Automatic annotation (TrEMBL):
<feature type="binding site">
    <location>
        <position position="234"/>
    </location>
    <ligand>
        <name>substrate</name>
    </ligand>
</feature>
<feature type="domain" description="Glucose-6-phosphate dehydrogenase NAD-binding">
    <location>
        <begin position="14"/>
        <end position="186"/>
    </location>
</feature>
<dbReference type="Pfam" id="PF02781">
    <property type="entry name" value="G6PD_C"/>
</dbReference>
<dbReference type="InterPro" id="IPR001282">
    <property type="entry name" value="G6P_DH"/>
</dbReference>
<dbReference type="GO" id="GO:0005829">
    <property type="term" value="C:cytosol"/>
</dbReference>
<keyword id="KW-0119">Carbohydrate metabolism</keyword>
<dbReference type="GO" id="GO:0004345">
    <property type="term" value="F:glucose-6-phosphate dehydrogenase activity"/>
</dbReference>
<dbReference type="InterPro" id="IPR019796">
    <property type="entry name" value="G6P_DH_AS"/>
</dbReference>
<keyword id="KW-0313">Glucose metabolism</keyword>
<feature type="binding site">
    <location>
        <position position="147"/>
    </location>
    <ligand>
        <name>NADP(+)</name>
    </ligand>
</feature>
<dbReference type="InterPro" id="IPR022674">
    <property type="entry name" value="G6P_DH_NAD-bd"/>
</dbReference>
<feature type="binding site">
    <location>
        <position position="181"/>
    </location>
    <ligand>
        <name>substrate</name>
    </ligand>
</feature>
<dbReference type="GO" id="GO:0009051">
    <property type="term" value="P:pentose-phosphate shunt, oxidative branch"/>
</dbReference>
<feature type="binding site">
    <location>
        <position position="177"/>
    </location>
    <ligand>
        <name>substrate</name>
    </ligand>
</feature>
<feature type="domain" description="Glucose-6-phosphate dehydrogenase C-terminal">
    <location>
        <begin position="188"/>
        <end position="479"/>
    </location>
</feature>
<feature type="binding site">
    <location>
        <begin position="17"/>
        <end position="24"/>
    </location>
    <ligand>
        <name>NADP(+)</name>
    </ligand>
</feature>
<keyword id="KW-0521">NADP</keyword>
Length: 483
């Protein structure tokens, strides 16, 4: 299979926070890979902009080292030198006047112009305003904003208003890198490109849906940020919510930004309030030993959750009676992300009770081994009567599509190129983000008002025991978190 690379229009991409961790770890290596693939046309430019004073050469060196460190497999000294010759740097203060005139002069040409806000969200408003004041907020301009988009509904609204004061919604690209994953888009292809699944995609045939995003890492160096956020704000309100929307939404009329985002918004608005009994919060804690969440964040009294499991209901015709179970956490047994659509059993077994209970399960794996499999029930081979067994119809992309499937662009590569192409389909609209906070806020407020403490769980486990009970009490069980 030959993958097609269509070059994007010539662009200027300014990365505010170009010297920061995200820029070095993700954004620039992603651009480097797109450059190597031939997608970046000759005179496109990438301009780092940050508070510290660097020459363009120093910035180029910093980024070359970043590619070597964070993407050693793709590192090729000659290619990197060619790529970094497209990089420039301006010393800009988001909160002052330093550098803005110089930046405006650099990006004055008639070409696609994107500004990536890879800085703390507290700077978003100041950046938007200064781009406007210095004549860079015209109709050619796009802005890209990173997570977290707000801490609650009020702060998300304030951020939206700050951006809307200078930019139209069609110019704002709110990144959720989960939406850029190949499998997530494949989920839409499978649902809406096949006749097979959609007729069964409802409460009549689906017993329940599970979404698990498990990490093995702890809070690491992000303790201070994470402790103010927790799993609900850091993962559920954004990433798991986006996955939930794509799995549950009605078919959009077209694969176009607002058609897709309208349908996602309807799902969020149909979410029921979640009772406290349907949520389990956890905090990793190894009795007296490291690693321990409280040590990692340096606050022995912290009540922030590093794990959450919850049962969610969608009040609409399609999903009434079919719950979704969401689970995410740090320091778990394995790093795995998957969505499992668990279908109901057949209404009657012609093979009798001894054939056991069987269900079809469609599993969409985001990591590792991106792909899907569909569990189907067949006869166990050999003599001895009709014994049934569940086997997977495996659609691991790397196996099914050949080596090209391993070279698919990662989420940041795809999303940045979508910004340049002006395609907002895989970006969150402002009203979606606000609706997700409007759902999450009362849950978080409830914990705070009651002073709820998360349940301890062992690092390397599958989370607190109570999270198992959440399923058991409904006669269901979580899928295994596999190493
Ligand atoms: P970081 O390493 O602390 O970098 C912050 C950047 O902002 C630096 O380049 C810094 O420049 C620049 N900066 C700070 N104050 C400035 C000012 N007044 N004017 C201009 N530039 C200023 O942060 P990060 O980890 O890259 O994160 C950036 C954003 O992405 C944050 O919103 C974060 O929540 C989000 N994010 C990060 C990750 C990640 O993996 N790192 C993942 C998802 C989302 P100097 O270094 O020159 O001072």
């Amino acid at each position: 299979m030959v993958s097609r690379v269509i070059p994007v229009d010539t662009f200027d991409l300014v990365i505010f926070g170009g010297t920061g961790d995200l820029a070095r770890r993700k954004i620039l290596p992603a651009l480097y890979r797109r450059f190597c693939s031939g997608q970046m046309e000759g005179d496109s430019r990438i301009i780092g902009a940050a508070r510290s004073d660097h020459t363009a050469e120093e910035f180029q060196q910093l980024i070359a080292e970043g590619i070597k460190e964070f993407d050693p497999k793709a590192y090729d000294a000659e290619k990197v030198a060619e790529f970094t010759s497209h990089l420039d740097y301006v010393h800009v203060d988001a909160l002052g006047e330093t550098g803005w005139k110089a930046l405006a002069e650099k990006v004055s040409g008639d070409r696609v112009r994107a500004f990536y806000f890879s800085v703390a969200p507290s700077l978003f408003g100041a950046l938007a305003e200064r781009l406007h004041t210095h004549g860079m907020a015209d109709s050619n301009t796009r802005i890209v904003v990173e997570k977290p988009f707000g801490h609650d509904l009020a702060s998300a609204r304030a951020l939206n208003q700050d951006l809307a004061a200078h930019f139209d919604e069609s110019q704002v690209y709110r990144i959720d890198h989960y939406l850029g994953k190949e499998t997530v888009q494949n989920l839409m292809a499978v649902r809406f490109g096949n006749m097979l699944f959609e007729p069964l995609w409802n409460a009549q045939y689906v017993d329940h849906i599970q979404i698990t995003v498990a990490e093995t890492v702890g809070v690491g160096g992000r303790g201070e940020y994470y402790d103010k956020s927790g799993a609900m704000r850091d993962m559920v309100q954004n990433h798991l919510m986006q996955l939930l929307c794509l799995i549950a939404m009605e078919p959009p009329a077209r694969f176009e930004p607002d058609a897709v985002r309208d349908e996602k918004l309807k799902v969020i608005r149909a979410l029921e309030a979640v009772p406290a009994d349907d949520i389990v919060r956890g905090q990793y804690s190894a009795a007296g030993k490291q690693p321990n969440y409280l040590d990692d964040v340096g606050d022995p009294t912290s009540r922030t959750e590093s794990f959450i499991a919850m049962k969610v209901k969608i009040s609409n015709w399609r999903w009434a009676g079919t719950p979704l179970y969401l689970r995410t956490g740090k320091k778990l047994k394995a790093r795995t992300s998957e969505i499992a659509v668990v279908f109901k059993q057949t209404p009657h077994s012609i093979f009798g009770p001894e054939s056991g209970s069987h269900r079809n399960i469609l599993t969409i794996r985001l990591q590792p081994n991106e792909g899907m499999d569909l569990g189907v029930t067949i006869k166990e081979p050999g003599p001895g009567g009709m014994r049934l067994v569940d086997v997977p119809l495996d659609m691991t992309f790397a196996e099914a599509l050949g080596p090209d499937a391993e070279d698919v662009p990662d989420a940041y590569e795809r999303l940045i190129m979508d910004v340049i192409r002006g395609n907002q389909t895989l970006f969150m609209r402002g009203d979606e983000v606000e609706a997700a906070w409007a759902w999450a806020d009362p849950i978080i407020d409830g914990w705070e008002q009651r002073g709820d403490r998360p349940m301890p769980y062992d690092p390397g486990s599958t989370g607190p025991e109570e999270s198992m009970m959440l399923m058991h009490k409904d006669g269901r069980r979580w899928r295994e978190i596999k190493t």
